[in-house]
Design a protein that fits this description.
Layout (H helix, E strand, L loop, with lengths): L1 H14 L4 E6 L2 E6 L4 H14 L4 E8 L2 E6 L5 H14 L10
Antiparallel strand pairs: 1-2, 1-3, 3-4
Length: 100
């Protein structure tokens, strides 16, 4: 089942590429695409630490004219709302990456 979720996540990324990508690793949280505010990354790191997350990705996508979060299968449902709350606080300060 996990392989199906992983495949679904990859296909969703191809259909609607993320504007920002935040990656959770064992060493912490880092942004691999875009330049979000440092305060948002720090808050995401706090959420990841409180849930003990060592793997996973959080994508910010533009869908139906508004920014939304897309979660990788490694992130448990229990943490989704906490990430949405943090995103809502910092959303006005986020800048999408420049497109070439």
């Amino acid at each position: 089942m996990h392989a199906v979720k992983r495949l679904w996540h990859r296909l969703a990324r191809l259909a609607n590429p993320p504007l920002l990508i935040v990656e959770m690793t064992a060493t912490g949280v880092r942004c691999t695409r875009g330049t979000p505010p440092a305060a948002w990354l720090a808050d995401c790191a706090d959420v990841a630490e409180s849930f003990g997350l060592t793997r996973g990705q959080l994508d910010v996508v533009l869908f139906a004219g508004r920014w939304q979060l897309r979660f990788s299968p490694e992130l448990p449902r229990a943490c989704h709302q906490r990430f949405r709350n943090v995103f809502g606080v910092h959303q006005q300060n986020l800048q999408p990456p420049r497109r070439r």
